[in-house]
Amino acid sequence: MRIIxxxxxxxxxxxxxxxxxxxWLGDHQIDGYELYNxxxxxxxxxxxxxxxxEVYRVDASTLGELDALxxxxxxxxxxxxxxxxxxxxxxxxxxxxxxxxxxxxxxxLLRDNQDPA
Length: 117
Known about the structure:
With 117 residues, the chain is mainly β. It has one helix and six strands.
């Protein structure tokens, strides 16, 4: 199984330890989505932008743990997306992003370099 990560699960980020048992396959960019800053972590929603991410191969146990973390309470829903590494799961944010800061660059790692205007 493959998974797309775009925020705190990426390498050298606060929750990257969840990916310890995963195999990094490479970087990727998904079109037709927008990235929002939700505070300590981001959310991706359908839109007109691009989001920079990483693709990993994970086992069923890791995917189950991520599902418990991300889909609890309906905050995220998994969607299957094409990548150069094969189809991979993307966690799409299910709640309103009204009033949240859009990360125009589409890159969580550049969130602090945003123009506040």
